[in-house]
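Slide 14.
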Amino acid sequence: MANNLDFALLYAQNDLAVFPLHNPIFEADKIRCSCRKGETCDATGKHPRTRNGSLDATTDLQHIEEWWTKHPDANIGIATGRKSGIFVLDVDAKSGGLISLDGLELEFGFLPETLIQKTGGGGKHYIFRLPTLPNGRELVIKNSNSAIADGLDIKAESGHIVAAPSLHKSGKRYELETHEGTIANASDWLLALIFDAERPIQTELDEEQITEATVLNVRKHRASGNADQIYKEALERIHRGEQVIPGMRNIYLSRQLYGLLQSRSPEQAIQIIRRKNGKHCEPLYEHLDRIERSVLKRLKEAA
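Slide 15: predicted structure.
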């Protein structure tokens, strides 16, 4: 059976720079990190054992063997960004990332087939090649948390991910969902959202002045221009049944349905959504049936 060292060597042989992370330790009814903080660590099994973290990541097989011979249970970190030539779409299930991704894929199309791993926390890592500039240099992408949508993080320059078969504090292991090892180029729409999210918003609107319908990730979407005007236009468009900022309408419907399902039966929730949809935004949502099926599927998988 392949161990962490075997996987670390395999990643390195595929040009993914790795380094050792601390790992969770289970003792009776206690869970602690292998670091000095032990039970008080707030990043159990996810932070570096090395002094310089991802900067120490390497594809040198001898160095890797030395690391895991000394710490055979160490979790595996893969450096993201130019160090490995990749960036990762980190889908955090607990923060609504699966629902957000469903909405974006319904709006723009499915992500290409690429190397994917299931995280120990129930999320997913979609691993993509860094875009290359005309001069052959790889583009620098910044790390971000929920910048393009709730629960969708980007791991890139100077960042890292925990890699399979590392152990999560939940007791579950990270698992490769695809084993072909092919890392694809990202969809243009995903890159557009990432780069758009890196632009600073000029002004902020008082949260109390914004209805739930207006928020629906508009601020997280980081559209260019004046934020106040964006919020106002989004709300007006919703009530007129017109197009909202691309990528946001399906996320809004998905989140609205998901919220209703917390206290109502699927039949009741769908009836409410359809009534609201028909009253306010019927021209907006062309994929309501697909959204309903997708959300119900996600809830069934999580049960």
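Speaker note: Residues 30 and 38 are 10 Å apart (CA to CA).
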